[in-house]
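Data follows
____________
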Amino acid sequence: MSDENELQYDSPLFAFPVKRDAGAYFVLFSEWKGNHCAMTYLADYQKDPNTALHYLYLVAYTEFLKDKNIVLLRGEFQPYLTKTVRVLFLEFKKFNL
C-alpha cells in the first residue's frame, strides 16, 4: 500500500537525450521509486542495472502537494557532472519543465 504523499507514475522509467557540442548527444536514464529518483547514463544501465552508478539523485517532498499543488525537489549529483546537470536543466527550461 502506498503512502498518500507518495508520487504515482504511469511509467517510472524515462530516458533523457541530452545534446552535446557538435551535434553529439548522450542519454540519461531515470528510475523513480516512490519519491526518489536515481539517474545514470543509459549505456551504464544497459550493461548492468545493478551496478550502474547513480550520477544524480532526486528526492521529491510532497507535503505541499494537496494544499498548494507544488512538489519540492532536492537533488544531489557527483561534482564531475556539473556541466552535464547544467545542460540537462537548460534542456528542461526549453520545454518549461
User: Anything to note?
Assistant: The radius of gyration is 15 Å.
